[in-house]
Amino acid sequence: MSDNVTSVYGGAASAEAPADIPKRKTRVHHLQAMKAEGRRWAELTAYDYSSARVFEEAGIPVLLVGDSAANVVYGYDTTVPVTVDELLPLVRGVVRGAPHALVVADLPFGSYEASPEQALATAVRFMKEGGAHAVKLEGGERMAPQIAAITAAGIPVQAHIGFTPQSVNTLGGFRVQGRGDGAEQLVADAIAVQEAGAFSVVMEMVPADLAGQVTRKLSIPTVGIGAGNECDAQVLVWQDMAGYTSGKTAKFVKKFGQVGDELRRAATQYAAEVGQGTFPGPEHSF
Ligand SMILES: Nc1nc(=O)c2c([nH]1)NC[C@@H]1CN(c3ccc(C(=O)N[C@@H](CCC(=O)O)C(=O)O)cc3)CN21
Ligand SMILES: CC(C)C(=O)C(=O)O
Ligand SMILES: [Mg+2]
């Protein structure tokens, strides 16, 4: 593949790229236009150069360097401990691997909540040092000042409402949000982040009907994860999507592959062939 950005979907790769994926860099206004046209799009997490290249070739328009790296890259139990310094190098790899994608950097717990000034300073680091094109943060009404400050500086913000994993300790565990009385707050959060200037909003673990109502009410795209089929877009952690997550996954996950099984098979066969002395063969030797 050539380094030329305009040629990524050219040549042999064009047969595999979905026909309607534009050969252009994804911008915030493209996502807005897709909402107006009723065309759904897929967002996926990415944490390194090699996987980002594959998602670029698959035509995924938006890649999120999620703080879920805490779990799937660093092996922490929750997203609470992961730091800006742990996430920044991952952002750089994804940006290099996916020249057409809009790369969103997730602001980790503790890097934005204290004040709009703190939030802007962290967002600026992800833009300048990471090369990100946008940032994401968790919270609705209560984070509106942060969203407004970042947006005012020319940095697009993806909001995240409903179940916000960084607040797992106040939300009382990993559970659906917006049921019963919570519905009113969820709608208020959605409106608040739109008014603060967010270009899109992730809704995590929200009843499908409520997510549909919010999607119709808002002018910005909604991105669902465990929020039913009426959102403008969907997002998943790539290891969940590809069957590369160990243990039980959430109800909202569909495994579109068995990447973990295939990697285990390959590693097992490699070790066996080394043990048997059949690898490397003459064709791998100098
Ligand atoms: N691999 C991975 N996938 C994710 O989607 C993800 C992460 N990591 N890390 C950060 C957050 C944490 N998320 C989570 C974590 C657990 C559940 C979960 O256990 N859900 C259960 C309980 C639902 C309920 O009781 O209402 C489920 O069955 O869906 C959901 C979302 C979503 N994010
Ligand atoms: C699951 C998505 C929305 C996320 O915030 C993450 O991967 O960190
Ligand atoms: Mg996150």
TrEMBL record:
Positions with a binding annotation for Mg(2+): 67, 106, 138
Cofactor comment: Binds 1 Mg(2+) ion per subunit.
Reactions accelerated catalytically: (6R)-5,10-methylene-5,6,7,8-tetrahydrofolate + 3-methyl-2-oxobutanoate + H2O = 2-dehydropantoate + (6S)-5,6,7,8-tetrahydrofolate
Entries under SUPFAM superfamilies matching the protein: Phosphoenolpyruvate/pyruvate domain (SSF51621)
Recorded superkingdom: Bacteria
Enzyme class: transferase
Compartments, as annotated in UniProt: Cytoplasm
Required cofactor(s): Mg(2+)
Matching InterPro entries: Pantoate_hydroxy_MeTrfase, Pyrv/PenolPyrv_kinase-like_dom, Pyrv_kinase-like_dom_sf
GO MF entry, a single one: 3-methyl-2-oxobutanoate hydroxymethyltransferase activity
Keyword Phosphoprotein: no
GO annotations of cellular component type: cytoplasm
Record-listed E.C. numbers: 2.1.2.11
Keywords: Cytoplasm, Magnesium, Metal-binding, Methyltransferase, Pantothenate biosynthesis, Transferase
Pathway(s) the chain acts in: Cofactor biosynthesis; (R)-pantothenate biosynthesis; (R)-pantoate from 3-methyl-2-oxobutanoate: step 1/2
A Gene Ontology biological process term: pantothenate biosynthetic process
Active-site feature positions: 204 (proton acceptor)
Keyword Transmembrane found: no
Gene3D superfamilies (UniProt xref): Phosphoenolpyruvate-binding domains
Positions that bind 3-methyl-2-oxobutanoate: 67-68, 106, 136
Family named by the database record: Belongs to the PanB family.
Protein role: Catalyzes the reversible reaction in which hydroxymethyl group from 5,10-methylenetetrahydrofolate is transferred onto alpha-ketoisovalerate to form ketopantoate.
Quaternary organization: Homodecamer; pentamer of dimers.
Designated name of the protein: 3-methyl-2-oxobutanoate hydroxymethyltransferase
Species of the source: Rhodococcus pyridinivorans
UniProt lineage: Bacteria, Bacillati, Actinomycetota, Actinomycetes, Mycobacteriales
Gene of this entry: panB
